[in-house]
Design brief:
The chain is mainly α. It is built from six helices and no strands. The mean pLDDT is about 95.
Length: about 170
């Protein structure tokens, strides 16, 4: 069976959010998730909350009609919380992705995203690919940050091929 772009994006985004979960869980303490190093502005906790806010707003609220209200300022200002609460937010975001993306029609994907972005009109499919790349970028940052903070170079296998492999 041929895969659609929405099914591919759903699989990719969920895989990367699951990679985020593994990274967050690999931190040795709740406190360490919020640590940074000189030259690094955002902690792993901050980046996790940011990608959740981003996806729940742009995919959930705008495309899926959820009632999500984004607080972008809090995403970047929160400096404490448990790994469990961060993982719960990542799991909530997975649920939003799994419920909204597969329901998008070819017409929606081919059309313009319902709101201007940075004053520009953007194709919906192109914007969703952008969101997946944005998520992967921040996942990579979290992986390196975890290794620097903990001194543990063990891979969490953040981007396994199995989810995207042909059956």
């Amino acid at each position: 069976m041929a895969q659609t772009l929405t099914s591919i994006l759903t699989t990719q985004v969920v895989r990367e959010l699951q990679g985020f979960i593994r990274e967050v869980e690999a931190f040795p303490s709740d406190d360490s998730v919020w640590h940074t190093r000189r030259g690094v502005t955002n902690s792993a906790g901050t980046l996790a909350l940011h990608v959740c806010g981003n996806l729940q707003d742009f995919v959930g609220r705008v495309l899926g009609g959820t009632s999500y209200v984004r607080n972008r300022e809090l995403e970047f200002s929160q400096r404490e919380g448990t790994r469990v609460s961060v993982v719960a937010e990542l799991r909530t975001t997975i649920g939003v992705i799994e419920s909204v993306l597969p329901e998008l029609t070819d017409e929606t994907m081919a059309g313009n995203y319902p709101m201007p972005l940075a004053g520009k009109t953007v194709n919906t499919a192109a914007f969703l690919v952008h969101l997946a790349a944005h998520l992967a970028f921040h996942l990579g940052q979290v992986g390196y940050l975890r290794r620097v903070i903990t001194g543990d170079n063990t891979s969490t296998n953040p981007l396994p091929l199995a989810p995207i492999a042909a059956s």
